[in-house]
Amino acid sequence: MTSSGIARPAGGAARAVTRTLSDDPLGGTVRRTVLPSGLRVLTEAIPAMRSVSFGIWVAVGSRDETGPQAGAAHFLEHLLFKGTNKRGALEISSEIEAVGGETNAFTTKEYTCYYARVLDEDLPLAIDVMCDLVADSVLAAPDVETERGVILEEIAMHDDEPGDEVHDLFARAVYGDHPLGRLISGTEETVTPMTRRQIQSFYRRRYTAPQIVIAAAGNLDHAAVVKLVRQALRGTPLDTDPASPAPHRSATPAVRTRPAATVVEPKETEQAHVILGCPGIDRLDERRFALGVLNNVLGGGMSSRLFQEIREQRGLAYSVYSYASQYADSGLFAVYAGCAPGKVDEVLDLTRAELARVAATGITEAELARGKGMSKGSFVLGLEDTGSRMSRLAKGELLYGNLMPVDELLARVDAVTLDDVNALAADLLGRPMSLAVVGPFDESAFAAR
Q1: Which pLDDT value is given to residue 20?
Q2: How far apart are CA 222 and CA 230, in angstroms?
Q3: Considering the domain boundaries, does residue 35 fall inside one?
Q4: Which of 233, 250, 285 is the last residue of a domain?
Q5: pTM across the whole model
Q6: What is the largest distance, in Å, between two alpha-carbon atoms of the chain?
Q7: Which positions are catalytic?
Q8: Tens-digit pLDDT profile for residues 138-187
Q9: Same domain, 345 and 433
Q10: pLDDT by 10-residue block (mean), the chain, 449 residues
Q11: Residues 125 and 189 in one domain
Q12: Does residue 96 form part of some domain?
């Protein structure tokens, strides 16, 4: 990707810098503008579409919180929809819905996203509303108390979903007290005492122009989008002095993980939920393309080894799959299964045996071809949606520091060899495995393992 630096004319005033990043035959024309404040705007023009997806991405997530702040990023995400100096909560939602659009937001461990999808003719409205709520929310005290109740209900609802809870339990087993091991939502103990002042401080310290990427994809004109963004942000706290964009999150030092452990959450459920896995690789690791292929072969679809062995041939579980999560400085690789409590031992034995088999002998040429085809097909099919294209722009800028052209990404997958996958499998699947279990058990049930 081109440099993120800010050019300044002879008079000393900063100006926006615009570059064309790609004119991809499999995509649209991608342009990038760095505003004087350090805020970046990326667009992909797709004239054949009649809609536009518009997103504001902030390089702040739950891992940026201290222990007492746990849940602040997610709390803030809720509050920004409650009202600004120009609009109340009802106006924010009704203005977008009145034109048939949709808006939402989500918080992850490393970033937060606010987005809208509208008809192309309504993009100016979407830009004005979304920039307003991200840049100039008031965080009124009554709204803090209202949303506190909503979030506590959300936490309680999550606790009633053991299939979701087990993933958080597994992250805690691997990362312990590190922020990557915490719940994105926070807990009742951290959310209940959180004050408006604490959230306001988090908002103004973290939501700065250099930390923000705005991305849009669909039937649009880049220059018009930049102009509308600048108008919408004029006079807000994001209309700041010249600065350079923040660099993407560093991969060093690497996150320290805990020794392999077994963590059990006793719960009277009809089905046991188990995750077996280990620390993986970070998102800039060159082996990430081989990991995508390996994951597809092991548990990435109905033709995968684990699905065929555990569900199709033995009928031991309805849901079984593998997955990889990657962060700036760490990652996870894991296998999930939901099964009857009495079948847990057999499912775990089969899973361990399959992982050990692949670690020792690798995969076949036919599996390599199928795994690569799955990776390429799922990526290209995702380009049919403006939301996916918008996300790709933002993640490329925010997480990777560059936007890999579609052809190059497909070529990187094609370049993965059998030796690449088998070497990664020997390393990754040979690591000590942690186990997370939610179900009618106690720790002693797995002590021998």
Answers
A1: 77
A2: 12
A3: yes
A4: 233
A5: 0.93
A6: 75
A7: 77
A8: 999 999 999 999 999 999 999 899 999 999 999 999 999 999 999 999 99
A9: yes
A10: 33 66 72 97 94 98 95 98 96 97 98 98 98 97 97 94 96 96 96 97 97 97 97 96 93 91 94 98 97 98 97 97 97 98 97 98 98 96 92 96 91 98 97 96 74
A11: yes
A12: yes
246 within a domain of the structure (yes/no): no
CA distance linking residue 301 with residue 307, whole number of Å? 7
Question: What is the CATH number for 350?
Answer: 3.30.830.10
Q: Are residues 179 and 273 in the same domain?
A: no
Provide the 10 A C-beta neighbour count for residue 381. 10
pLDDT of residue 23: 64
Residues 91 and 223 in one domain: yes
Residue owning tokens 């890999």 = 404
Torsion sign across C-alpha atoms 370, 374, 377, 379: negative
Question: What is the number of structural domains in the chain?
Answer: 2
Contact 35, 208 (CB under 8 A): no
Same domain, 229 and 290: no
Domain that holds residue 317: 262-446
